[in-house]
Specification:
Elements: E1 22-26, E2 29-36, H1 40-48, H2 53-56, E3 62-65, E4 75-80, E5 83-92, E6 96-101, E7 104-113, E8 121-128, H3 135-150
Antiparallel strand pairs: 1-2, 2-8, 3-4, 4-5, 5-6, 6-7, 7-8
């Protein structure tokens, strides 16, 4: 696992590989990140689009929610491992969102802006340390998400 100094992110001056997800410890979480060839706003919008989650997340098979794009307070159910479980988005902005699944804090999602580029950004899934076993799933998800966004 690649480590960086606490509080640093994969942004200019601290770049990571362009097309391979990296893992960085950020306090009590692991930040699994990957560069995406796309502008920040459309990339962040795609990440918040509940209809597209099954297209890129290996663990999500379906989503039921009245909100297409997550915002603070969005609720619904995701189908994982053949079971539908409730979720609630606990906080959301244009560039990041966090949720609870079955009442348990789950992954965070964010898009980091590069100061020196408008045609690429970094998508990050934050994983609690206790869920380190989920990191390989996040790596696959980020590769699938990048392919989805870059195909536009």
């Amino acid at each position: 696992m690649k480590r960086r100094a606490p509080g640093t992110r994969n942004v200019p001056g601290n770049p990571g590989p362009d097309d391979r997800p990296t893992v960085v410890r950020e306090g009590t979480k692991l930040a699994v990140g990957r560069d995406v060839a796309g502008a920040v706003e459309p990339t962040a919008r795609a990440l918040r689009d509940t209809r597209r989650w099954p297209d890129w997340s290996p663990s999500v098979r379906g989503v039921e929610s009245t909100d297409r794009y997550v915002e603070t307070g969005t609720t619904g159910r995701v189908r994982v491992a053949g079971v539908r479980v409730p979720f609630r988005v606990t906080s959301a902005t244009r560039l990041r969102w966090d949720w609870r699944v079955v009442g348990v804090p789950a992954t965070g999602h964010r898009v980091d802006r590069y100061a020196d580029a408008t045609d690429r950004c970094r998508v990050v899934v934050e994983v609690p340390l206790v869920a380190v076993g989920y990191v390989p799933v996040c790596r696959r998800a980020l590769n699938r998400f990048a392919a989805l966004v870059e195909a536009r």
